[in-house]
Amino acid sequence: MVDCAVRLGAHGAASLAVRHIVTAEWVLMKCRFGCPNYGRTRTCPPFTPGVDQFRAVLAGYRSAVLLWVEAGGDGDRLPIRRRLHEAVLGLERAAFLGGSHKAFGLVDGNCLWCAAGEECAPSACRHPEKVRPSLGACGVDAFATAAAAGVSMHVVRERSAAYRLLGLVLLD
């Protein structure tokens, strides 16, 4: 699955056991108090499962693939975010077709499918086949989970700095 993630557009990927996915309530606090997209898209709280509900979801899985894309800080972020979302969706589909019938992806950040000028309607999504919840919206501590998978992450201190966006595909 790691090689497949790269073929689908990720810059890198790593396998990890689901028990190494770190969740915490404070992550949702950052969504609720600090993100301008809270309550505005279907992939963000309050439209996503809470941390306890997501932990219950994780209990039904054994392994996962953490995948990422890397970008410089300059320019439009939408193309690199779209690349990540498409890689997550592609890997989820490949896993499903390969026999992992519970395969499910999560992405970094808010929904981007209505970004081309459409107004998002969380209760009547126009792109349900592409929408996946945000890692943060489900309480996933991206830094701790990446570290558990052996993937280095750093806090971006300047808008022009390079950054890494994460996605996750849960596998049964």
Describe this entry's structure for a reader.
It is a single chain. By secondary structure, the protein is of the alpha+beta class. The chain has one domain (2-171). Helices cover 28% and strands 16% of the residues. The protein has helices spanning 2-7, 25-32, 51-58, 78-97, 142-148, and strands at residues 12-17, 63-71, 104-106, 163-171. The radius of gyration is 15 Å and the shape is globular. The model has no long low-confidence stretch (mean pLDDT 91).
Number of domains: 1
> What is the number of beta strands?
4
Number of helices: 5
- The overall pLDDT average reads 91
What would the principal axes of the Cα set say about the shape? globular
Describe the structure in brief.
Helix content is 28%, strand content 16%. The protein contains 5 helices and 4 strands, in the order αβααβαβαβ. It has a 4-stranded antiparallel beta sheet with strand order 1-2-4-3, sandwiched between helices.
Key features of this structure:
4 strands, 16% strand, single chain, alpha+beta, 172 residues, 4-stranded antiparallel β-sheet, 28% helix, 5 helices
Give the topology, please.
Blueprint: H1 2-7, E1 12-17, H2 25-32, H3 51-58, E2 63-71, H4 78-97, E3 104-106, H5 142-148, E4 163-171
Antiparallel strand pairs: 1-2, 2-4, 3-4
